[in-house]
Specification:
Layout: E1 6-11, E2 27-30, E3 35-42, E4 52-56, E5 62-68, E6 71-78, E7 84-90, E8 99-103, E9 109-114, E10 117-123, E11 132-136, E12 165-172, E13 175-177, E14 186-195, E15 200-210, E16 216-227, E17 233-243, E18 249-251, E19 257-263, E20 275-279, H1 286-289, E21 296-303, E22 307-315, E23 325-328, E24 333-337, H2 341-344, E25 353-355, E26 360-371, H3 379-387, E27 390-395
Parallel strand pairs: 1-2
Antiparallel strand pairs: 1-27, 2-7, 3-6, 4-5, 4-7, 5-6, 8-9, 9-10, 10-11, 11-12, 12-13, 12-19, 14-15, 15-16, 16-17, 17-26, 18-25, 19-24, 20-21, 21-22, 22-26, 23-24
Length: 396
Amino acid sequence: MRSPVILALIVSSLVLPCAAQSLDGTIIDLGGAKGFSPIFVPYSGATPTERYRAVGETGGGRFAITIREGELVLVQVLAEMNPQRVTFERVQGDPPPSMRLEKRDGENVIDVNWGNKLFTAYHYSNENKKPFLWPVLSEGGQTVTRDYPTGPKDKTDDHIHHVSLFTAHGDLNGVDCWSEGEDSGFQHTNNVEWGSGDAYGWIKADNVWQDKDHNPVIDEDREYRFYYGPSYARLIDIKITFTAAYGEVTFGDTKEGGLVSVRIADGLREKGGKGVVTTANGTVGAGRAWGKPAAWCDYSGKIRGLGVRGLAIFDHPANLRHPTNWHVRNYGLMGANCFGYSSFTDGKDNGDFTLDSGESITFKYRVYIHSGDVEESDVAGRYADFAKPPRARWEE
């Protein structure tokens, strides 16, 4: 009989070799992690043809897993009672994936379903200036981003280029890929792939950023991961890789940008709403947070009949110029911008960044959509999980 393979979970940024060849008989020891977090396990075995889930031995419960691209991802709500041990079992029958992604008939839109309910949708028609996620729904089906201009107007119709949750920058070799006027550029989608899973579903997009005449400026590969977990704590990981495929590219110093940006729902903004901006440094209020560096920035507010809902953006420690500066406003804009130094420092510093021809740079962010305020939803703790996620070492 084959001896079981045992996993001891450690907190590490290293990707360690995996000796497992099968999930049958495997045990994972989840010591030291707390709260809700994806757990990333290097996996060199063959990808199972059947679906599995993790079963808690000490803490109970059944938890979603996804195996993809040499990695096993486990999503679990880890209680204070640690360590937790889990084994794996085959999923019986043919239930739908926990995160189910489907393309709409006749539209360049991919719906991201949380179980049987819509969570968000990725819009990538090249009739738009740029792709975006809309709506972005929190627990209870309440949107946390503004519907306008894609959906109906609530209170505001300003800044038509603030499209829910998006990626943009206002100066790439002088090309404006932030605003949406006649002279602005485009984010042209060449190809989109997507997949469903129990721990997470994903979208990968191959984009070319272009000038107003559709001449290429820079290539961009974008990946979203939508994790399955408790409805009060929804996570999206966003990885963006730029490649200077057409010659040298300078990301110009401008405040008009945010590689992950959101326009918060009107009812959650500070100006005319019930929201408040908070950063990792303890700064409260958009006026104080604007242009300042911080590892994360959160926009939260109270919704009548539901309680507090919020959205935080996390800046990964490996990102250029971490902690990033924040282009955040009381009217609902929040974006991670590490380039706009001249505006943020009253002209003392310059934020230009040049990517040499053929070179690439990658940015990683996490979006945390939560119920409760910054303290109740433990934004700081969830950021710590992102900055230094639990990982596993396989031991014979």
